[in-house]
Write a structure and sequence with these properties.
Layout lengths: L17 H31 L7 E2 L2 E2 H34 L10
Antiparallel strand pairs: 1-2
Length: 105
């Protein structure tokens, strides 16, 4: 007797393993959102509070140093952190076993 495969029905999960892909997308989305919030806070926070930082630092106003150098360092850290987390995440995904096909029972 020949073995038959069941016909997929509406609402059945695809056999390609959608759950890890959804979890991965959720992680990437949350990481991107959090880093964008940090970026926005640094970009607009420095400009908003620049007048409160009104003391001299090496002959220049401290707000200039924070805006010109500190924000740039934070931007570089954001890019470095994103690249590092995504490399680790992609490595973990490549080591994960493939999703099992749905059971026939």
């Amino acid at each position: 007797m020949a073995e038959t495969t069941p016909v997929p029905q509406r609402g059945d999960p695809p056999s390609g393993g959608l759950r890890p892909r959804r979890a991965s997308g959720r992680l990437v989305g949350l990481l991107t959102l959090s880093l964008l919030l940090v970026w926005g806070g640094v970009t607009f926070g420095v400009a908003w509070f620049a007048r409160d930082l009104s003391f001299d630092f090496f002959g220049w106003p401290f707000s200039f140093w924070v805006g010109a150098q500190g924000a740039l360092l934070v931007y570089c850290l954001i890019v470095f952190g994103y690249a590092r987390v995504m490399n680790q995440h992609e490595a973990a995904l490549s080591r994960a076993p493939p999703a099992l096909p749905p059971s026939e029972f």
